[in-house]
Write a structure and sequence with these properties.
Elements lengths: L3 E8 L4 E9 L2 E8 L5 E6 L3 H17 L3 E2 L12 H5 L8 E12 L6 E3 L21 E7 L15 E7 L4 E7 L16 H16 L10 E13 L3 H8 L5 H9 L18 H11 L2 E2 L22 E6 L3 E3 L2 E3 L6 E7 L7 E7 L1
Antiparallel strand pairs: 1-2, 1-5, 2-3, 3-4, 6-11, 7-8, 7-11, 8-9, 9-10, 12-13, 13-16, 14-15, 16-17
Pfam families: DUF1963, WGR
Organism: Calothrix parietina FACHB-288
Protein name: WGR domain-containing protein
């Protein structure tokens, strides 16, 4: 008996996939995946050729009922757009770029973009204290605005952005400090000793998992050494009320909440089945990020500049934390998030919005 192959494709704007069934005597080979990819292959042996033919026909007919069509291999080419992008294509008008901080634990450097370590202070300035309770403020993170992605250069001003918090009064103190001329964030970095290297290997996971308990008191930092862009989308309430776009249950899950358990509800060859990339992106959107859309947590409360009254832009989100070497943590506050907004015109004006997840 000669081989008999049936090749099907489904390409409808949301999906771009193939399904191929080959009968070879008592064996049925199924190959499926995205058009242009090698796909996955399964081989099943049956008791006789008649049974193999019967089961192969069932497979083909089930796909035809789902909208697949007979096609010639090669007529359609691989689409460069990702699966996630296709599934969210109708939301393209809402898409912005968010930036995930890329972390490296190392010796502290005063002018670096970083979590932990010691904040840079203007010459002669004292460490800041809360004007209400007089307690020393908690330093959370610092951004060297000259080292942001090229597309964001100048958007948030120049100098060092710093965020301090008084957790006794639960008040935030964001500020921008102007840097000395010719200042360089790496100019004062010293060589890491073997002892420091050993300390850093255990210090980084510990401070991430404990949200900043630092037994070395600022000797080390979690330096932001780069930014990874990703597609970001607005909180569902903001999308609906401000832009008139209502997410489907699937879209909201895919954007913000998808996890490994969600994958169990989809067949292996279903293009709507969430992928590890989807799970990572959902975490990125609710974790710490630069620019993009704010994840409001509970309700949308747009922030406006007290001087000019215009809608403020998202500078930074402190959400579920940061990620380094498989460790996720460094949350701003237990079960809470903080959005830092800035006026695009009056860059010294900030508002902070805190909410529970």
């Amino acid at each position: 008996m000669t081989k008999e192959t049936t090749y099907l494709e489904l390409s409808d704007g949301k999906s771009h996939k193939f399904y191929e069934v080959t009968i070879d005597d008592v064996e049925v080979t199924v190959r499926y995946g995205r058009i242009g990819d090698a796909g996955k292959t399964t081989v099943t042996a049956y008791d006789n050729a008649e049974q193999a033919q019967k089961e192969a026909s069932k497979l083909v007919n089930s796909k035809l009922k789902k909208g697949y069509e007979r096609a010639n291999k090669g007529d359609r080419i691989k689409q460069p757009i990702s699966r996630s992008d296709r599934r969210l294509a109708r939301l393209n008008h809402l898409r912005r770029t968010g930036w995930k901080p890329l972390i490296k634990p190392t010796l502290d450097a005063p002018l670096a973009s970083k979590y932990l370590g010691k904040p840079w202070l203007s010459p002669g300035a004292n460490y800041p204290h809360c004007p209400n309770c007089q307690g020393a403020l908690n330093f959370h993170f610092q951004l060297n605005l000259q080292e942001l992605p090229e597309s964001l250069q100048g958007k948030f001003g120049t100098g060092l952005f710093q965020l301090f918090t008084c957790f006794s009064c639960y008040t935030q103190f964001p500020q921008i400090l102007q840097l000395p001329e010719a200042a360089n964030s790496t100019s004062l970095v010293t060589e890491i000793t073997p002892e420091d290297a050993a300390n850093l290997s255990t210090w980084a996971p510990y401070v991430i998992q404990t949200s900043g308990i630092d037994d070395f008191h600022g000797r080390y930092m979690l330096q932001i050494v780069g930014w990874q862009p990703f597609d970001d989308y607005p909180y569902y309430e903001e999308a609906q009320d401000t832009y008139g776009t209502e997410y489907s249950e699937y879209e909201e899950m895919l954007i913000f909440h998808v996890d490994e358990q969600d994958c169990e509800f989809y067949e292996e060859d279903d293009p709507d089945r969430p992928t590890p990339t989807d799970i990572q992106l959902a975490w990125d959107r609710t974790a710490d990020k630069l620019s993009g859309w704010g994840y409001w947590g509970q309700s949308v409360e747009h922030q406006y500049c007290r001087i000019c009254g215009q809608l403020m832009q998202l500078l930074y989100q402190l959400g579920q934390g940061i990620e380094y070497a498989g460790h996720q943590g460094m949350t701003y506050d237990t079960d809470n998030l903080l959005l830092v907004f800035q006026c695009a015109e009056h860059k010294e004006e900030f508002n902070c919005y805190g909410s529970a997840f």
